[in-house]
Structures are given as C-alpha cells and as structure tokens.
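Hi, here's the filled form for the chain we discussed.

Project: internal
Contact: R.S.
Residues: 435
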Amino acid sequence: MATKHEQILQHILSLEIGHKISVRQIAKTLNVSEGTAYRAIKEAENQGIVSTIERVGTIRIERKKKENFERLTFAEVIKIVDGQVLGGRRGLHKTLNKFVIGAMQLDAMMRYTEAGSLLIVGNRVKAHELALNEEAAVLITGGFDTNDDIKQLADEKQLPIMSTSYDTFTVAAMINRAIYDQLIKKEIVFVGDIYTPYDESLYLYTKDTLERWYVLNAQSAHTRYPVVDTKERVTGMITSKDLIGKDRDMRVEKMMTRNPITAQEKTSLAYVAHMMVWEGIEMVPVVDSSYKLLGVVSRQDVLKALQQIQRQPQTGETIDDIVASNLVPAEEDQTVFHAHVTPQMTNQLGTLSNGVFTSLMTEASSQLLRHHKKGDLVVENLTVYFLKPVQIDSNVIIRPKLMEAGRIYAKIDIEVFNGKTMVGKGLLMAQLIDR
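And the returned structure, exactly as it came back:
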C-alpha cells in the first residue's frame, strides 16, 4: 500500500497543468496533516512537477524534459526577473520559445511576435493587446501596470501578462543568463541519467535466504546486490565476501552490510565516482528521498559516462571548461603546458584568481596522467605552497612532474611560471580511475 507521502504525490500528478496547489487544500482533500502535505509538495517541487512563485503561489507544471534544457517556462521567467503576474496565471506552465524586445514600431514588433514567444515591452497597452492576440505572453518592464481589459484577455487566452521593476535591457540579460546557466547544467551528468532502473536491476529482500544470492549470481554474474525491506526501501548490501563459509539457508538480513552508501537521481556523476574510488566499491544503489530503491549505478556505468562526456562538444562553458581550453601542451615537450590568462580567469583586481590557479594545476596534472596512459584522476589532496599574483593577459607555463604512480594512486609535483619567474608551486595526490 502506498504511503501518505506517495498518495499526495500521485494526487498532485493527477491535477491538470496550471492548477493552483496549497498545503491546506491538499491536507483537507487527502485527510493528512499540513506538515505531511508541505513535505510532499516540496518533494514535488524537487521532482519538477510543481513550481512555487512569490505572490502567486504553487502551481502544477509540466515536468520539463531534459532535452528542452534551452527553454524556460513563464513561471521560471517570473522568478528570474522577480516579477508579479497581472493576469493569465493558468498559462504560467507554458514554455517560452523565444523572447522579443519591443523597442520598435507596433507593425514591426508584430512581425517578430509569434505564438509561444514572450514580448518584453514597457507601458504600451496596444502592444500588450496585439501580443496576446498573437498567442504570445507579455512582460512589462519598468514596474508599469496594464488595463483591466488586457488582464481579462490574458485570463481568457491563458497567457501570462507579467510586470517587473527592471528595465528592458536588464530583463533580456537576466533571461539570457538563465538560459546559459541551463546549458551548463545540461552538460553536468547526474546519476539519474545513467543508472540501471529498478525493474532491470537485481536485488534481494531481507527475508530471503543466501540461496537467492546464488540464483541471481548464476543469472547475472554480478557479485554485489542491494537488499530491500517489504516496502522496497534499501536497508543493506550483500556481496560474495559476506557469503564465505556461510550456510545457504541463512537469512540475508543477518549477513548483509547495513546502512550502505547510496545515491539519488540528482547526485552528480563526479560525486559518485569519488565515492566508488575512495570506498573501493563497484556498485551503488540509487534511491529516492524515502530510501526506496530506484535502481543501481555501477563503476562501469560511471566510466562509460566519463568517456562519453569527453567526446561531447561544449556549449555552455564553465570555469573548468575555460581552463581546459586554454591549456595547450608545448610543442617541444608534451608534458609542459601553456595557458593564457583571459578576463574570465581573473578576480576583481585583474590577477589570476586562486580558484582558477588551482584548476590549472589540476587540469595540467590530469593531462599529464592521460599522456602517460594512467587513466583519469580523482583529486584526494592538493597542497599549494605559495602563489604570486599573475596579471591579466599573461602567458603562464605549468610543469607537472610525476613523482610516484601506482595502479590506483599518483603523486604529482607542479610548478607554475610566468616567464622565468616561478609564481606557484603545489603537490597533488590523487586516486586513479583506470579505463
């Protein structure tokens, strides 16, 4: 039987898109406490099926597909520009396809305004009306209001007309920034992107005997399985080591390792890779917020995803992307690297920022290990002995030197030069993920 938490989530999923949701209404409808209703609504927000907007409330939205990462809903636009809804609340869940800045004559403006777009304009009531009739939403800048008949038209069309105190240029920049941030988020791989789902993964129940492990092992050749209770919640892990010298009739719950390391769908790939390397484990159960088993992620899944990432073109650059693209091996020695200090890599004083400095050291070390065919690194410790300021537009030379390297461990000494002057020195110790 589903828990109250699950019943609330199912109820929210059954509501139509654009429906307004409140804690009190959910509690009354399903006969649960307001605390239970509040926690379930927050979980629904985490899952992307509702959105809470200041001065509007919580509304049911369509769960955004990952491939639509470059688009925003009008509900998200309201949050970005700190705006308020004047009319057409039931259209907040709709997707913004493009935005048009209304800094032109009306007839020219309408040539660019189409269904699904957002017209960003000031106190021009006629433009508000024409845009809504073209099935476009409206964002009024400068804190202006609009006429009541326009608000009524927005309600009829189920298209939001919104207002923000920011000017048009600032609003356009804020929306552009949000889209760019989503591009970067799209490139970050999460466990939810790569794990093997629950219905495909193999697991045992606490009341099973060890004989069940041997059956699963014969089917899959895996040696490590999650253990769940009667409510499908992960309570342990059992491996081949736990079975050594044990009778096959013994219960799994007596032999399993309790409180295992788990991951959630929004756990990043990098974090899982760190856990697997540091803890020396081959597989991690994937669970929801109530520890219910969703699936498993294996070390092989992680390695395949890491290899896939390196083959993908970058569309939204993070600082690490900028560092990697600026790091070029020297022609005469492929283990020495050059980097040009760009404005994005500096602090407010115009010198190379400390964070970018350490990123340069880490990336150079990573490329050195790949050059020596040692696999990818997971930084365990980076000690920086000293740093000197490096000005914008400088060309630095990074000299990583492999001091020790084993099957799963490496120690690298790094020196950074600006011309002939040493400007940084560090010692990096890392675990290795062999391909």
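Let me know if anything looks off before we file it.
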